[in-house]
Every structure is written in structure tokens, then in C-alpha cells.
Amino acid sequence: MDNMLDDVLVLSGEIAQQEETENDLSVTEFGEKLVKSKDIEFLWVARNASSSAKKATTTIKKYSDEKMSEDVLTNGSIRLGNQVFVYSKSSSWKVSDISSFVEWIVSKSENKEEIVEDIIAILGKSFVPKLMGLDAVAKKRGKDPKVIRDTFLYKEWKEQPDLKSINTGSNSAPKWVHELSHGERRK
Question: pLDDT tens digits, residue range 63-78?
């Protein structure tokens, strides 16, 4: 895989120098082979090599960000190229007592319409519910979870399909995953 990793890094460097809209993968010999390949195992090895390269570059970026943050904290903001780097410690809000929070929303509302308005204001119009939680509430109320999902939710399909991977060593991996051997397909 070391040779493949070298090929991936060279191709990555070439792609990085292209215009943003270009993305021509066939600019190196390896890239040409990648574009023409129908060999799933070759594509898999190339994918793993690119994942290793991504992990390495992410590690480098994270390290650089940490060192630059220390420098900017000590010496002040700095412009480098078209970017100005400033120090700020990121944070996110967390609910300290969810029960009390929900009770406050419900109990301080004047009527049912205000409860709905307040909940929408807090959750936002693009809120996505936790599906397992929704299913549990549906079951608790004696309703079919699938009917409740179909009543209140819809799936928005993406333009491009996602390739997902299942770790065969994971305890949560489906049984059929363990039954496949290398190169074997499930239809």
C-alpha cells in the first residue's frame, strides 16, 4: 500500500493545483488507471490509501491549527495570504436539565398554540427528530412507529449516493456482514 499511498499523494497534489471546478483525476498515470478501473478491489485499495492520506493531512492540519492558535493567543491576530487568523475558544450550548427545560417551555405557555410556536422557535424549522426516540414515543402511545414516521416525516434523497462502510469487527454490525468472506457479494 505504500506505493499506492505515494500515488494517491502525487495525484492529490496535482488535483490541489487545479481550478476548483476542474477535478481532473486523470492527470497522473495512477489517476488514469483509477478513472478507467472497474476492478472493485483496486478501487478499494485506492480508497484505503486515500483514507490514510486524509487522516495524515488532517493530523497535520490539526497540529498546525493548535500551534497557530497558541501563537495568535500570545502575539495577536495575523493576516497570512487572504486569511486573517484570530484566537477564539469555541463553545456550544448544552441543556443542563432537559426535564426542567421542557417543563418550563410547556408550563409557561398560555395555550396549546403558543406551546407549538415556542417549540418550533426553539427547535427551528429544519429540526430532525431522533428516529429511535420518535419510535419509542409512538410505541408508548400505542401507535405504529412506521405510520407515525410516514405521517410526520419524509425522506429527502440526495443527488449522489453515499458509500457507507460497516466495520466487521463492530458489535453492532449486522449478522449478514459476518457471513460474507473477502470478495463475496450480497445481493
Answer: 999 999 999 999 989 9
Count of Cβ atoms closer than 10 Å to residue 176 Cβ? 9
3-state secondary structure of 124: coil
Q: Is 140 a domain residue? A: yes
Q: Tell me 166's DSSP state.
A: -
Q: Taking residues 102-116, report their average pLDDT.
A: 89
Residue 150 falls within a domain, yes or no? yes
Closest CA to 16 of 8, 62, 47, 55: 8
| Cα gap 99→21, rounded to integer Å | 49
Residue with cell 405521517: 151
Name the least confident of 66-75, 147-156, 172-181: 172-181
Number of domains in the chain: 3
